[in-house]
Amino acid sequence: NRKDILLACPMNMHPQADPNKTPQEIWEDFSLSFTPAVREVVEFAKHIPGFSSLSQNDQITLLKAGTFEVLMVRFASLFNVKEKTVTFISGTTYSLEALKSMGMGTLLGTMFDFSEKLSALELSAEELGLFTAVVLVSTDRSGIENVKSVEMLQDSLIKALRTLVSKSAPGDVSRFTKLLLKLPDLRTLNNMHSEKLLSFRID
Amino acid sequence: FSDPASNLGLEDIIRKALMGTVEERPE
Lengths: 203, 27
Fold this sequence. Notes:
The complex is a heterodimer. In chain A, helix 1 (23-46) packs across helix 2, helix 2 (56-74) crosses helix 8 (182-198) and helix 4 packs antiparallel against helix 8 (182-198). A 3-stranded antiparallel beta sheet of chain A has the order 1-2-3. The mean pLDDT of chain A is 92. Chain A is 61% helix and 4% strand. By secondary structure, chain A is mainly alpha-helical. Chain A has 8 helices and 3 strands. Chain B has one helix at 10-19. Chain B is elongated. Chain B starts with 9 loop residues before the first helix and ends in an 8-residue tail after the last helix. At the A-B interface, helix 1, helix 2 and helix 8 of A face helix 1 of B.
């Protein structure tokens, strides 16, 4: 019954599907925001110094594995912890209770936790950009041909991030550590999200 | 997870964006 289709991802217009729309139309509506968002991640990656000198296979492999982690950082602010709301791409805001009553659960709660911890670090735009680059190159390495070059790129980005973070908050040594601890959080989120994706098929 | 992202055609979008061959679809 189409009325019961739950669209948990806030890149949909609304969490409940329009009952008059076919699954294909629902998917096309979603891809109107999903596809540009993925393209944006690719454009972002092209601007990471050193990323374009990786092999094409390794660029694609990193992007496939890391796109959702980057999007979770990029859209973390849609999950408003103070208000306990999620803003969908239409601009409409839904309370945590309402979304839970629709059937959303652990992934939603984990995303809220992540959003809360990330915003607590009060990153500047520059810090957030460099952190996002670290997220992408720190993603799962399955299928990577030249692990050494990816590790070298990761190393240089982490060094740059440490320099930037310590410059803006010299006294707060723990800030950089807390930031790096977001990486395993993102991996957990990504694994939970992947589980949901497995149950989703587009034909 | 074998390749959950393939359910969304992620690799295709990435390849096209990387190669710069963006379909001219009305945004």
